[in-house]
Amino acid sequence: MLQKIHIQNFALIDKLHITLDSELNIITGETGAGKSIILGALGLLMGNRADVNSLLDPDSKCVVEGEFDLQKMNLKQLFGSFDLDYDNTCIIRREIAPNGKSRAFINDTPVTLDILKAISSKLVDVHSQHDSVLLGSSAYQLDMIDAFAGNEEEVFEYKQAFHIFKKASSELEKLKKAAVNSQKDFDYNSFLLEELVEANIKAGEKEAAEEELNILENAEEVKTRLASLMSLFNNPEHSMIEMLRDASATLNPIVSVSKEYLTLKERISSVLIELSDIADEVEQKEGDLALDEERIAFLKDRLDVIFRLMQKHGVQDEEALLKQQNDLSIKVADVLDFDSKLQKLSRGVEQAKIEVEKIAQSLSKKRKGIVKDLNKKVILLLKELGITNADFDMSFEDKPLDETGQDEVSFLFSANKGIALQPLKKVASGGEFSRLMLVLKYYLAEKKSLPTIIFDEIDTGISGEVAIKMGALLRKMSTLMQVAAITHLHQIAGKGTSHFFVYKIDGVKRTFSNIKKLDEDERVIEIAKMIGGQNPSESAIKSALEVLQN
Predict the structure, then answer these.
(1) Least crowded by CB within 10 Å, which of 83, 158, 393, 456?
(2) Phi then psi for 404, rounded to 5 degrees?
(3) Strand partners, 503
C-alpha cells in the first residue's frame, strides 16, 4: 500500500506531501491545477523516463519519494533476488539532477531502472487517460489477456525462444547471401590460389636467387679473381703462407729469451692458421665455380615468376605473397565448406522453429483458456455499470510468429440488443471504453493482488446514474485494495474515504500547485461546487450532503 508521497521541485510543485488512506482516495481540482502532475511524479517512481524540463527550478534537483507498506505482501524473495534489504516499509526515491542525470533508490540502495520497474510494478498500477485509448489496440489487449492468464513466465520463455529463432534465421540468411557472393569469386580465387601453390614460393627466396644469379652472371671474373688470390697464397716464389712460416721459424731461437717473443710467434701462428683456412675456402669456391647457363636461366625464370606474382597481387615481398596465398586458401575453403555450414544452420533454424512454435501453441492455449470465464465476469459487471445489454467476447486468429506469439486478438463488444459483436475500437463510445477499462482493471487487480491502483479520470464520457454505479464499484474495489482516483464527477468523489483537493497558488514570480486533504465540511463544499459551480447554492450543498451520505 502506498502510504506517503513526497514531491519536490517537479513541474508546478515546489514541495508537496500526501498521506493516503488504505481505501478510496479521491483527488479533485480545477482543470490545470496539477492533478495529473502528481501522477507524472508517481510515474518516476514507476521507472518512467526522467525529463530535465520537468524541474520547476532548473538549478535544483527534483526528488520524488514514495513510502510503501509491505506487511501484507510476499515480496521478500523478489527483493532478495536483487540483493535489496527487505522491511515492512519500503521507500522508493527518484532524483533528477539539473544536468539531466537521474538516480533511483530502493531503501537507500541505488538501483537500475529495470530493477525499479520490477519492484514498483508489484506495488502499484497507474491507469492514465491514455490507457483507455490503448484498450482499442490489439497489442494492449493481448497484454491484458496475458496478465489475466498469469502468463508472465510463459511470455518470457516465448520471447527468449523467439529471439533464438530470429537470430538463427538471420544468420542463415546472411550465410546464404555470403554463399552467393562468394561463389561469384570462387573460380577466380581458386585460379589465383592454384597459381601460387604451383609457384611454391619460399620466404627469402627472391633475395637468395638474386645473389646467386649475380655470382653466376659474373662467374668468369670471379673465377679469375679467386685464382689470382690463390697464387698469392701459394706462389712458390713469394707465397704468403711460406713467408709466414719463415717468420715463425725466425723467432724460434729467441722465444725462450722473453715471453714477448713467444707472444709474437703465437700471433704469427694464429695468422698462419687463419690464412691457411682462407686459402682452402678460396680454392674450394674457385673449384666449384663454373659458368652454368642452365642454372642462370632457371634463376631468371624463377625471379620472373616471383616478380610477376608480386605485381599481380600488389605486394612488395614473398612474405606478403605467402599471406595472400593463405587468405585465398581460407576463402576457397570457406566456399567449399558453405554447404555443410548451411546444412548445420538450417537444422538449427528448424529446431528453433519447432521449439518456438511449441511454446507459442502452449501460450495460445493458456490465453484462450481464460476467455469464457472472463467474458462472463466482464458482461456481468458491465451490466451493473448501466450497459444492460452488454455483450463481450475475444476473438483469436493465427498470425505469423512475432514477438508476442501466434495470436492476433481482438476484443469484441456490443452495447445494444440485436447488434452483432464488433471490434471494440469501432463501436465503443468514450463512456463505454471507460467502463470496460474499469471492469478489466477491477478483475486484473483482483487477479494480481495488487495493493494499490490509481485511476486518472477513468470516468471520461459518463455521468448521472452510470457515474453513481462507477463510484460504487470503485468503493467496492477499495475494500480489496487501496484505490486513488482523479475525478471531475461528484458522484464518484462522494464515494471516497479520503478526499484531496489540488489547487494553484500565485506566488510573486511563479504559480505553484499544492494539495490539501479536505475535512468533512470542506468536502461538502467541494462536492457542492462540483455540482453547482464555484458559488454553490443551498440546494447544491444539500445535494452534496446526500451524495456523501449515500
Answers:
(1) 83
(2) -100, -10
(3) 514
Residue 499's pLDDT is what?
Answer: 96
> What's the structural domain count of the chain?
1
Spatial contact of 42 and 126, defined as CB atoms under 8 Å apart:
yes
514, part of any domain: yes
> 107: alpha, beta or left, given left = phi > 0 and alpha = psi -120 to 50?
left
Residue 257 lies in a domain: no
Residue 409 in contact with residue 396, Cβ under 8 Å? yes
Which tens digit of pLDDT belongs to each residue from 420-463? 999 988 888 888 888 888 899 888 877 777 789 998 888 888 88
Residue written as cell 452495447? 415
Q: Residues of 248-279 as b/e, b for ≥16 C-beta within 10 angstroms?
A: beeeeeebeeeeeeeebbeebeeebeeeeeeb
CA distances from 124 to 3, 11, 46, 390, 454 (A): 11, 22, 8, 30, 8
Distance CA 448, CA 441 (A): 10
Residues in the chain, overall count: 550
Contact status, residue 548 vs residue 522, Cβ threshold 8 Å: no
Task: Give the DSSP H or E segment for 119.
Answer: helix 113-120
Domain that holds residue 53: 1-124+451-518
- CATH code where residue 466 lies: 3.40.50.300
Domain-embedded: residue 479: yes
